[in-house]
Amino acid sequence: MTAPPASTRPDGDVAIHAEDVRQTFGDVIALDGLDLAVPTGTVFGLLGPNGAGKTTLVRILATLLRPTSGRASVLGHDVVDAPLPVRRRIGLAGQLASVDEELTGRENLEMVGQLYRLSPAQARLRSDEVLERFSLQDAADRRVATYSGGMRRRLDLGASLTGRPPVLLLDEPTTGLDPRTRQELWDEVDELRREGTTVLLTTQYLEEADRLAQRIAVVDHGRVAAEGTAAELKATIGQDVLVVRLAQSEHTAAAADALAPLGSTEPVVDGAAGEVRLPVADPAISADAVRALDALGLRIASIELQRPSLDDVFLSLTGRLPDAPAATDPEVDPS
Fold first, then answer.
1. Burial class (CB in 10 A: 0-12, 13-18, 19+), 283
2. How many CB atoms lie within 10 A of CB 190?
């Protein structure tokens, strides 16, 4: 069983709270009574397939979208009734860097500082701190149009921190970044958490949630399907996972049919990779799996037993990979 949400724990000092939040766009249901409680001073990972409602929730928490029904608050301030106090306490960095390409990096940061009502002197000081923190000093006075994608993303994250907000909303901030830049941003997020910032992180990278988040919620069809620490979520699988990779990926479906009777749940198939994953109660099942596939003449590239991963949790809860779209994509406002 997963642990109860933070709001039901006696020590639950909650920075972000959502209660029965529902969001519809015409006939499309983006959020369907979502409940969430994010403990103060933690990185909270929000996992879900495309269209699960993650971005919609971030927009509501950032006061950019009014929920159809339900309540949400940040540090005790209701996002509908008290939007200005909420905005003064949050930083937001989305999937795309929202910086002005015609301004320099320094000018972008000073402009954001003034929006946070800092004096010109304070804005300059804060921009210098951010530029140093994100290793952008050498590019500070260059137009952002000359920046690489990774530099723009670091500047965007830095801009969200210019006002030193106690709560940071990160909506898939590392999408499209190279591994080195992604690791640099992970280090920054980890450091922010150690400094006391509460971070709500939406991501499709399961490794990212496993690496950064103290608690994780899996969202599917606009609801929280499961919540807990990474270890608690993995424990819900409760068994080893048999991973079979075929030499010929076009035979993956036939292999899954042959292996299904050996597992405790339905196998998960990745046809593109030629891989079948199957939770098993008995490790000795590996030999039976080899015999079943050999009887069909299916060649095995590799076979191994693994401890459950977040991938297995995600697939067992949603039946698809994080980047697989839902039947509809309610994260895009059709209006």
1. exposed
2. 14
Q: Give the type of residue at 173.
A: P
Q: What is the pLDDT of residues 214-253, one digit of tens each?
A: 999 999 999 999 999 998 888 877 678 889 999 999 999 9
Domains of the chain (ranges, CATH numbers): 6-89+165-234 (3.40.50.300), 239-307 (3.30.70.980)
Residues 11, 1: Cα–Cα separation, whole Å? 20
Whole-number Å distance between alpha carbons of 103 and 189: 26
Question: Residue 23, SS3?
Answer: strand
The whole-model pTM stands at: 0.76
Strands 69-74 and 77-78: antiparallel
Q: What are phi and psi of 77, to 5 degrees?
A: -100, 125
Beta carbons within 8 Å of 213's beta carbon, 6+ residues apart: 42, 43, 44, 45, 201, 230
